[in-house]
Amino acid sequence: MELDELKSNWENSNNRPANQNSLTAKMIDQMIQTKYDAKLNKIRYPEIGGGLVCAIAIVFIACNFNQLDTAVTRSTGAIAILLLILLPILSFLSLSKLNFESAVSESHVQVLQQFAIDRLRFQRYQKMNVTLCYLLMVAIIILLPKFFYGKDLVINKAFWTFAFSFGYIFLLVFSRLMSRYYGRSLNQAEELIREIKETTANS
Amino acid sequence: MEKKDTFIKAIQENERLIFKVASFYTDSKDDRDDLVQDIIYNLWKSFDTFQQRSSFSTWMYRVAMNVAILHLKQRKRKVPAVPIDLGALNFAETGFDGNEEKLQVLRKLMNDLNLFDKGILMLYLEDKSHTEIAEIIGISKSNVGTKLSRIKQKLRQQVNNQNQKTAWN
Fold it and tell me: Which of B37, B90, B109 sits opposite A17 (nearest CB)?
């Protein structure tokens, strides 16, 4: 199919309003007003929810910190608190975005470039987030039995054998899935930036 | 009130443009309706920035395409759209009269292009001149020509690949 053939297909396409002026003044007015209200109500519920869960977990670990009586469990507890502080911060950072209102009047190529840069940044934050989540999971596996049953699993050889083999397999499978999931998207964003740079450099 | 009336009149005169852009960048009816509302809202918000250095439709294309890109970014995190029944517009579903197969081919070809090429292709399909495309996209006129010939090559390559796959099957 040649571009001209594509063009004639597009021209013959049916994707247009059947009636001209089908958007009434009332509808346009309603769209402006209600979209404005929706924007005002736009709260990042998932991030706030995640942040709250992390805050509760920090309070719980801090309140029960005296139960951690060995150097290993105390260090693990401190690392867990640090990770629980870092994770919501990374989550909010990954969502910080270009100013929507000011971006819409820019040239399309500028918005595309910013879009690709933001996408790359988001993916990198996501990767970092997943790695930290994995570390947090390991820390929690070590801490939970201590908190709930008062047992120190770190001295249990069977636990370590199980935790290391299970952890290794999990990490291997998980990292493969991650690189497959993010790899293509990252390549597309990088290619887009490269292409825009090449084109604008020739202008 | 005069500003709003002027805006509404301008939107009504160019509504086809908004629906075309929204259809081009979305796959489902719900998403398209949401994008139409987003475009109109953002056109209204930035109406004061229209400086009449270009035609109103050129400015509208630029804003609409930019909103479509930003919409893609926010799509998964959207606040539910305004409950306006755009079905009442009697807006025909995207499609080719009696030729679904051609629509599928066109959609597939366009989906394989990156957003940069996709934007240029859409304006070309809309019969925009190289000067207008350059103005909307923000690249030089000569670059538009170069990009279009590369897009042609890409499409040709895709069609060849498709034909080869069909032959093997």
Answer: B90
